[in-house]
Amino acid sequence: MDKEFKIRAMGKTELAMCYNSHLSASGALQTLRRWINFNPTLVQELEEVGYNKYSHIYRPIDVHIIVKHL
Q1: pLDDT (0 to 100) of residue 33
Q2: 33: domain range?
Q3: Does 5 fall in a domain?
Q4: Residue 37, CB half-sphere, CA atoms under 13 Å: how many?
Q5: What are 8-38's pLDDT values in tens digits?
Q6: 3-state class of 9 per DSSP?
Q7: Tens of pLDDT along 38-64?
Q8: I need a labelling partner for 57 at 20 to 30 A (CA). Which of 2, 5, 43, 46 fits?
Q9: How many domains in the chain?
């Protein structure tokens, strides 16, 4: 991510495209999901703050944790 990044609530696809802008939206989202699931510490931290994998939006705390680990 080259631009200045602000921690805020954002759509999952929006965050995924920040990391993989060269992919399609669905490809970027799938890649982000893989990265998250491959990192057990990241998954654990998300679970500790009440992350809902079915939500279409990441809360600011979710974004903070994901960015910290990736």
Answers
A1: 97
A2: 10-69
A3: no
A4: 7
A5: 999 999 999 999 999 999 999 999 999 999 9
A6: coil
A7: 999 999 999 999 999 999 999 999 999
A8: 2
A9: 1
Determine how many CB atoms are found less than 10 A away from the CB of residue 34: 10
| Residue 19 host element (H or E) | helix 12-19
Residue 24 domain-assigned (yes or no): yes
Quickly list DSSP for 20-68: -TTS-HHHHHHHHHHHHHH-HHHHHHHHHTT--TT-SEE-HHHHHHHHH
What's the token pair of residue 51? 């992350």
pTM: 0.90
State whether the Cα torsion 28-29-33-34 is positive or negative: negative
5 phi and psi angles, rounded to 5 deg: -110, 130
